[in-house]
Amino acid sequence: MEQESDIQAQRDLMYGELDLGSLTIFSGSFINYGYWGDVAPGREITLAERTASQAELYRRVVSRLSMPLGAELLELGSGIGVGAALVAREFGAVVSGLDRSAAQLGRAAEANAATLADMPGRLSFYEGSVTAIPFPDASFDGVYAVEMLQHVDDLAAVAREVHRVLRPGGRFATATFFAPDGAGETPVADLIETVASGVDVVRPIGEFTADLEAAGLREVTATPIGEHVWRQFDQWVAQTEFRDSWGRNWLRCYENGWIDYYLVTAAR
Ligand SMILES: C[S@@+](CC[C@H](N)C(=O)[O-])C[C@H]1O[C@@H](n2cnc3c(N)ncnc32)[C@H](O)[C@@H]1O
Questions:
Q1: Are residues 146 and 32 in contact, defined by beta-carbon separation less than 8 angstroms?
Q2: What beta strand segments (E) does the chain contain?
Q3: From ligand 1's centre to the CA of 40, what distance in Å?
Q4: Residue 122 belongs to what domain range?
Q5: Which residue CA neighbors atom 16 of ligand 1 most closely?
Q6: Is the dihedral of CA 114, 133, 178, 93 positive or negative?
Q7: Residue to substitute in 100, 107, 125 for testing ligand 1 pocket (most ligand atoms within 8 angstroms of CB)
Q8: Mean pLDDT (whole number) for 100-104
Q9: Which of 83, 142, 241, 249 could form an SS bridge with 65, CB 3.0 to 4.6 Å?
Q10: Residue (of 182, 176, 164) closest to 225 by Cα position
Q11: CB within 6 Å of ligand 1 — which residues?
């Protein structure tokens, strides 16, 4: 328990004072690895393309919810909130963003001031944890999360909370990295510093889909999307001052079958 709260403190520091989203590996106030189109090896990637890749990951996740205009959605780990604003704008949804970091919520209020003013009642941010979601049962038509579940030690608790806050017939969609089933013992922790420290947890994908099913969710699917993520993200990292860092090892882990990026969906 002591060890677990140390790890949580590191995560909170990373998104608090250290402001991970300000690093050059991210852009546009998004904090994810992105869903990319083809990028020819060796071609210079523009900052606009890097930002577009992160916005596109949001579209890929939220389009899987297949929600009508006006649907009430909850985003888990909304970060600086630019993704939640995109979803409110492009999908015509009413979005509540949840994040445990007060610093991120402060950044979200600032970064989305115009959207908050232009679309009153369509975008709100709340402080709280995805393992104890501060909303009553059956509050939402859809719940989604973009690159955040890797920070949660108890995914079974998240699955139960998602089931609880979804209305009957509601849908869940998420994307982040997991280990492919059958990957077995891998050297990922030796190669990725945030995995070694416990800040990121790389679970077998089948464990998470089993958690969703055990929580009562139906129609659970998991689709590997690594071909749209890792090589292009690595090409971007190679353009930054992190070109010689352990951050380049994500691609190595993917190419060896030790890690992949997954789009996971389920229904209540
Ligand atoms: C990698 S960032 C992703 C942010 C955003 N989804 C994006 O793609 O730009 C992960 C976010 O999850 C938040 N987070 C981490 N653990 C959390 C938890 N247990 N409950 C709520 N938010 C959490 C962090 O504060 C951070 O803002």
A1: yes
A2: 72-76, 94-99, 123-127, 140-146, 166-178, 218-224, 260-267
A3: 31
A4: 2-267
A5: 151
A6: negative
A7: 100
A8: 97
A9: 142
A10: 176
A11: 11, 15, 30-32, 77-79, 83, 98-101, 104, 129-131, 146-148, 151-152
Q: Which residue CA neighbors atom 25 of ligand 1 most closely?
A: 101
Q: How many CB atoms lie within 10 A of CB 220?
A: 18
CA of 42 from ligand 1 middle (Å) equals 31
Question: Residue 10 carries which side chain, given as an amino acid letter?
Answer: Q
Task: Give me 91's structure tokens.
Answer: 């999908």
- CATH number at 149 reads 3.40.50.150
Tell me how far the alpha carbon of residue 116 is from its chain's centroid: 22
User: Token pair 């690159």 is at which residue?
Assistant: 147
Classify residue 141 by its DSSP letter: E
Domain tally, the chain: 1
Ligand 1 centroid distance, CA of 98 (Å): 8
The three-state secondary structure class of 259 is coil
| pLDDT tens-digit series, residues 147-200 | 999 999 999 999 999 999 999 999 999 999 999 999 999 999 999 999 999 999
Q: What is the pTM of this model?
A: 0.97
